[in-house]
Write a structure and sequence with these properties.
Distance between the termini: 68 Å
Shape: globular
Structural class: alpha/beta
Radius of gyration: 25 Å
Strand order of the largest sheet: 12-11-10-13-14-15
Mean pLDDT: 92
Number of strands: 15
């Protein structure tokens, strides 16, 4: 029997011992990472991220012109960036990554494509198109079906492999496929939709009389701050989120000819772009262009007019408005379309930092996107330019009550990633998670065997690596507390293991915190290096297991709280907190002139 090459986990049920896999994402229960990943070379990864960003900026200009012409609109570049930017960058990152996975294996002759058969499925691209950009992006990072199609498309157009041998497999049942990738911000509950419809109606009336010109949508502020913010801008406050858009089944049909014609127009423009031709070969240009228009969501093409008309009904989009959000810029097409129209009418969009990694990581494409679409980017304390405004941690997080009974001794906070890379940032990608997880398991075993009462808090993701199952198989105590913040408050010391919001939030709550991660993987930008060197000097941040265990033992010997309070007396540590998780000065929001552009 000829060995088969598995591109994804779709063909797991016919896996044989002599078969080959493109990556460990094909075997979600894999315990070890034994295949190289093309971004294991960190320098290459960051240089590629720069290339992807350059491609994105050039492609965005081309898309702006082509889509303005097709939809007969005059949206500015910033408006199109708000509307399609997150989806476009995710799509370009996805295709670039999958292409170079195949190229990496070909160049290193890791597969003999002549003597093996590739597991192949008859998947129609129209089955993979979603209404919303959020669902589309979600499918790229989670779905074996979507990634199988992308890998197959690349292989069909990969000139170095002449006519790949295919092992045709009976078509997967796709009936439940689309149900897994819902539009996150469309509310199905009829009662809630009635309430939101009434709120939308009131917004139209209030904005018509010019007493409503502040939109707060998923700001993550305490409600009193949303009210205060509106009042300080002289606006009536109206609670109620913007419900996203979704069409009924069968109302919108996949327009193959439209997508084909737009592909040709974009290709003509791309072929004239010196920047794109400098970064990409002709083959990859064709693959990116064709795949992008095969996977573009309905809301940006077939359903664009319907979405645009719905958002135009909101009178505030036609007047100068101040718009505030923390997350709607990437998961709500109705919000993005409304903001795009409003920005074309001199409105301001303020994005509020909603997590860690921002402001310190060497590279983060999501941060770049948020800062470019913002009139002001409101941070947890850091400032890099005139566009960043340090307001502090405005999320409703209570400080730790030191009198609360501590049910746990050591709380280890782990993370899980999706098996497929989808965003450019300094950190772990795709199969690199297995290295992260295995290292963490070894540390957890050491902590447990040293007599500590250890709990592991997992964050399982659907369609991923089954992290909770891994931890349970090793008989670790799993923290089942519903609230992350409550769980941290009930722990004597918290061990954070990746560069995201967790360690900033525990430091902000004044909970004894240790940080452990791979310095090479979680690279810092130059402006942040000195602050994180401070954490290392104070024995809060650790890059090796021996140093971590020594500090944990010392903190226990003198008392975790006493150890932590000694850090709070250090001037350098206070400077770190002031830059990355400072106490909010709520008075700042009273002085709305600071936010006016």
């Amino acid at each position: 029997m000829k060995p088969k090459i598995h591109l994804t986990a779709l063909s797991n049920d016919i896996f044989n011992d002599n078969d080959l896999i493109l990556g460990e994402w094909c075997i979600p229960d894999s315990n070890e990472k034994f295949l190289p990943y093309h971004w294991d070379d960190i320098d290459k990864m960051h240089s590629d991220f720069k290339v992807i960003d350059d491609i994105y900026e050039e492609a965005l200009i081309i898309f702006k012109d082509i889509l303005n012409e097709h939809h007969k609109k005059d949206f500015s570049l910033k408006s199109w960036r708000v509307l399609i930017g997150n989806w476009l960058h995710t799509t370009l990152h996805t295709i670039y990554d999958r292409y170079f996975i195949i190229d990496f294996f070909y160049k290193r002759e890791l597969f003999n494509f002549k003597n093996t058969e590739i597991c192949w499925y008859n998947i129609k691209n129209q089955d993979l198109v979603f209404f919303s950009s959020y669902s589309t992006c979600d499918s790229m990072k989670r779905s074996d079906v979507v990634n199988q199609y992308i890998f197959q498309f690349i292989l069909k157009n990969f000139s170095k492999i002449n006519s790949p041998r295919k092992k045709n497999i009976k078509k997967q049942n796709l009936k439940s496929f689309k149900k897994n990738f819902k539009n996150a911000n469309f509310k199905k509950n009829k009662f809630l939709r009635i309430i939101l419809s009434c709120a939308s109606f009131l917004r139209r009336i209030f904005s018509y009389f010019r007493i409503y010109h502040v939109i707060t949508n998923y700001t993550r502020f305490p409600k009193i701050q949303d009210i205060r913010l509106s009042l300080n801008f002289g606006s009536f406050y109206l609670p109620g989120i913007i419900n996203d858009n979704i069409s009924g089944s069968g109302q919108i049909t996949f327009d193959y000819e439209l997508r084909k014609n737009l592909t040709k127009k974009v290709l003509r423009r791309i072929n004239k772009s010196k920047k794109l031709r400098r970064n990409l070969n002709t083959e990859l240009i064709n693959i990116i262009t064709k795949l992008t228009f095969e996977l573009i969501p309905f809301n940006f093409l077939e359903n664009f007019d319907s979405l645009h008309k719905k958002c135009l009904l909101e009178n505030w989009v036609l007047r100068k408005t101040n718009i505030f959000t923390s997350t709607s810029f990437y998961n709500n097409d109705s919000f993005c379309m409304s903001s795009a129209i409003a920005l074309n009418n001199n409105s301001n969009l303020f994005i509020i930092q909603h997590g860690g990694n921002f402001g310190n990581a060497k590279f983060n494409s999501s941060e770049n996107h948020q800062r470019k679409i913002s009139s002001k980017y409101l941070t947890w304390g850091w400032k890099e330019d005139d566009n960043t405004l340090p307001l502090g941690v405005l999320k409703p997080i209570k400080k730790c009550d030191k009198r609360i009974r501590k049910k746990k001794e050591v709380l280890l906070i782990s993370m899980e990633l999706y098996r497929y890379s989808y965003v450019s940032y300094s950190g772990v990608h795709s199969t690199q998670w297995l290295d992260y997880q295995n290292d963490l398991e070894r540390i957890a075993v050491d902590i447990n065997s040293s007599g500590y009462d250890l709990f592991v808090r997992v964050k399982p993701l659907p369609d991923s690596w089954n992290s909770e199952k891994r931890w349970r198989s090793l008989n670790f105590k799993i923290d089942n507390t519903k609230s992350f913040f409550q769980s941290c408050r009930e722990s004597k010391i918290v061990l954070c293991t990746y560069n995201a919001a967790t360690f900033l939030e525990t430091i902000y709550m004044d909970i004894p915190t240790l940080i452990y991660w791979d310095k090479e993987m979680w690279e810092m930008r130059p402006q942040a290096n000195k602050f994180f060197e401070t954490l290392k000097k104070l024995k809060i941040l650790h890059y090796d297991k021996i140093s971590l265990m020594k500090t944990l033992n010392f903190a226990k010997s003198i008392g975790y709280l006493e150890w932590w309070e000694s850090k709070n007396k250090e001037k350098e540590f206070l400077e770190f907190k002031q830059n990355y998780c400072k106490d909010p000065n709520t008075k700042v929001l009273k002085y709305s002139s600071l936010l006016k552009i």
